Amino acid sequence: MESDERALERFSVVRVLPVVAPRKLAKVPFVEMADGRVQGVVSSGSDVARVYVSSISVSSISVSSISVSSSTVSSSPSPEHGLSCSTNNNRPCGGLSGGYACKHIEALLNEAVLQYGAERVARFLGVDVPGDGRALLYTLNTTRATTPAAVVFSRFLRHLSYLEQPATTTPVPELHWFPATGASA
Amino acid sequence: MLGIHLAELTSANDQGITDAVEVVAGLDAALVDGLGRLGPDAAEALSALGAAVSGSPLAGAVDSAIAAVRDGRIDLEALAALAAARAALLGAVHDALLARFDEAVGRERGLPAAAPIAAAAGGAVTGCRAWLQELAINGWRGVDHDLVAAADRIIETLWSAPRSRRSAVLLDGFAAELRAAAPIATMDRIPARRWADLWTRALLLTWRGEDTAEPETVTGRLLVVGVDVHEHGTAVQAQAHGVLEVNAGPARLVRVSIGAAKVDSIVGPAVWRVLGEHPRLLRALAERRAITVTDMPLTATGDLLWIDERAELAEEADPFTTARVALPEAVAAALAPLDRHPVHLGEPVLVENYRFEDGALVVDGHRLPVELDRLPRCGPLTPELVAVSTACIGLVRWDSDGWRVRPLGLEYPVKKTAAYAHTGDWALGPTDPKAAKALAKSGDSVAVLRERAGRLLRK
After folding, report:
1. ipTM, 2 decimals?
2. Closest CA to B343 of B209, B172, B159, B196
3. Cis peptide before B183 (omega within 30 of 0)
4. How does B132-170 read in b/e, with b if 16+ C-beta sit within 10 Å?
5. For residue A58, which phi and psi values (nearest 5 degrees)?
6. Which one, of B383, B385, B390, lies nearest residue B355 by Cα?
7. How far is B399 from chain A (nearest CA, A)?
8. Which DSSP helix (H) or strand (E) runs through B229?
9. Is B188's CB within 8 Å of A68's CB?
10. Band of the pLDDT at B209, cuts 50, 70, 90?
11. Which phi and psi (to 5°) does residue B4 adopt?
């Protein structure tokens, strides 16, 4: 139905965002691509009250993460990727050394790929999806960055606050612009 | 829906609709480049919009708005007038389409309720209008990361007040699309109609007061026909369409809506877990049972405002029987006047005796395209099931290329006997072993996040 070239322009209901895949949330309860970073929160393996705030920033954010964009990865210069990881109390992660990722960043990126798909994450980070099945992490041009944990952590808290919103039985007609999708055999 | 109904629905070529949509498309194109950079095409489009509403009460306001925008004064009043004109045109398109549908299938419909009074500015509404103004000035092509990020605070404020839930849900879904697409300057093709729709509704909602009409209370038996599910990253809504049999008067076609906020990692069958505490309703959907309701509020728009304690489970009720026997006699309600837009057309129907061919149900040679890409992941319906189905309960809808149907329930043969699948079947959890296994594998995402929220949120 949407194969028509003009469909995207002329339809009230078109899918703009790709379908997000379900994943286990226990280890990485939150991951997002926002503010030029793949960022999120990784639960500590040893302490239930501790979380790590991890992020991978992109030096030039000239591409969008969805495929309706005409931007191509190859046309832009290879970006740098700043790695950052610390606890929510701003203690630096001991596993992160220089440009080498810690296990939290590795977990974060793996879960981002599960949730959004390798292609979308790669496009956001300005790299190509490795054709040989290697993890996306090894295609990055990594350096050390100091992204404030508080910024990412507050986005996580905001994310969680949605679950505190009361359910409602008053209709929201505007959701007719957002039909549920994604069923396949 | 018989072949003759379908013929009457799809064969007509309504020039008025085509013309009105063309005028809307002109404004949509102007919003792509922004009203701050008004090219000759955009200026012409504004004139066409003015001409289209020249015989209406909006004429004066729209003329002033066009003059202001041409002078580079893109103020809130001008934008409100342009949005109102666009909404009025699409409202008229909606009315024409609905009248055609009602006539084609013989559906009786009540009169619309009175419109609510206008709201005053203040609080979140002011910030919301200012952001929408920035969008209109810059155009979709001018949207960058900073402009999208500016919406975060506004959306947060909108969510904090139950009164602005509609605006919050709309703006959150809209901003998420802009965020993912930003910077939009380089985008090949832009969903111009859609984003102009969302912008228009968002702006008009800021001018709308609360609906003051008091709902009536009803007592009777509710027979569910089918469930439609809506979802974006932070919201989900299940809308059950059903026939309400009351003691006096004809049966009514009603909707029950249950909705909740969620996060983007809660998807698929897990969404049923956040939809709220409605054990009787969810069980009735999952077990295809009738429901007896007592003193349940019903709005003039046919929305049953669900209170689970006032519902009792009754006998099993096959939705296909309801659709065959009760649906044709039920009286439908009209939409709230300010909501009129073709996107809200969603009329439950039963289609039988078709063959599935090339993405459409074909009855007596008349085609009704199926929205195969709008089957929710929280239910058992799949494109494959549609292809082998022998009967379909669905919502008749309309978008720019014409009428279509969104399946809500299917009858299909399994070893020569009839089997059934309905979107609400999984309301208490997936009944399909494969889907149940997948859900179990991803774990209880709702519980995990609630635990995290409990531990981290109140510190």
Report:
1. 0.97
2. B196
3. yes
4. bbbbbbbbbbbbebebbeebeebbebbbeeeebbbbbbb
5. -115, 130
6. B390
7. 6
8. strand B216-232
9. yes
10. confident
11. -70, -35
Q: Considering only CB atoms, which chain B residues are within 8 Å of A69? A: 181, 186-188
CA distance B300 to B5: 27
Mark residue A90 as left, alpha or beta (left: phi above 0; alpha: psi -120 to 50; beta: remaining): left
* A185 to B307: CB separation less than 8 angstroms, yes or no: no
Instruction: Please identify which residue in the block is written with the tokens 């991803």.
Output: B442
Contact between A167 and B281 (Cβ < 8 Å): no
A75–chain B Cβ distance below 8 A for any pair: no
Contact A11 B191 (CB under 8 A): yes
Fold of B216-332: OB fold (Dihydrolipoamide Acetyltransferase, E2P) (2.40.50)
Give the pLDDT of residue B186.
Answer: 75
Is residue B189 within 8 A of residue A68, CB to CB? The reply is yes
Spell out the domain ranges in chain B: 1-106, 117-210, 216-332, 338-433
CB A65 within 8 A of CB A49: no
Six token digits for residue B215: 């709902």
Show the CA angle centred on residue A27, arms to residues B449 and B151, nearest 5°.
50
- pLDDT higher than 90, residue B116: no
Report CB contact under 8 Å: A178, B303: no
pLDDT at B121 > cutoff 70: no
* Partner-chain contact A169 B438, CB within 8 Å: no
What is the total residue count of chain B? 459
Predicted confidence at residue B120, as pLDDT, reads 66
Between chains, do B379 and A183 touch, taking CB under 8 Å as contact?
yes
Q: Tell me which residue has tokens 């975060």.
A: B152
Dump pLDDT digits (tens) for B372-401. 999 999 999 999 999 999 999 999 999 998
Question: Do residues B252 and B221 touch, judged by C-beta distance below 8 A?
Answer: no
User: B339: how many CB neighbours lie within 10 A of its CB?
Assistant: 23
Q: Does A176 touch chain B (CB under 8 A)?
A: yes
Give the Cβ contact number of residue A69 at 10 Å: 20
Instruction: Tell me if B320 sits within 8 A of B420, measured CB to CB.
Output: yes
Tell me what pLDDT residue A69 has. Answer: 42
Phi, psi of B110 (to 5 degrees): -75, 175
Q: In what order do the strands lie in the sheet with B366-369?
A: B355-357, B360-363, B366-369
Q: B145 to chain A: which residues are within 8 Å by CB?
A: 35-36, 61
> Which residues in chain A (113-142) have CB-CB distances under 8 A to chain B?
115
